[in-house]
Amino acid sequence: RKGPGKTEPHLESALSRLALGQRNKAIRGFDGFAQRYGRIRKDRVKGLNILAWALATSEDAKCRDAELALRYAQQALKIAKPDQKASTLDTLAAAYAEAARFEDAVAQEKKAIALAKSPDAKNRYTDRLKLYEQGKPFRD
Question: Out of 14-18, 28-32, 126-130, which region has the weakest mean confidence (pLDDT)?
């Protein structure tokens, strides 16, 4: 059954399709679900953020898409609650780096570092900041 409480299966399906190189099917499937059911749900931020991260940082070049990663990351940031801002800014920075917009990546990563609550998150974000300052994208 599809509905507002069923985000995770659709997200998992999208990520699986990405891994299989079926980027268009992954995006269409998740987009359709998010538009029909996820406009106001807080878990939509998580889904958008995870999908943007995968599109920006995948080791597999056929799974990466800077334009879509930027679109999803920007949407996530717009609807993120305060406790979600650091991770969405980190994803936005990764998407900018994938698009070779390293000044923007650096600016967003610095914001993520400033908002990070845990030392572990600050360390991860700082490591990525160093890559962006060197003009390199992050690969996960």
Answer: 28-32
59 vs 43: CA distance, rounded Å? 26
CA diameter of the chain: 47
Cβ-based burial of 18 (10 A; exposed 0-12, middle 13-18, buried ≥19): buried
Instruction: Encode pLDDT of 28-79 as tens digits.
Output: 666 665 555 554 455 678 888 888 998 899 888 878 889 989 998 998 999 8
Q: Tell me how far apart the alpha carbons of residues 62 and 84 are, in angstroms, rounded to a whole number.
A: 28
Instruction: Find all residues with CB under 8 Å of 131, minimum gap 6, and list them.
Output: 97, 137, 138
Angle at 51 between CA 53 and CA 106, to 5 degrees: 25
- Residue 70: C-alpha distances to residues 5, 73, 100 (Å): 26, 5, 12
**Separation CA 114–CA 11 (nearest Å):** 29
- Supply the DSSP symbol for 99: T
CA dist., res. 27 & res. 51, Å (int): 9
pTM comes to 0.79
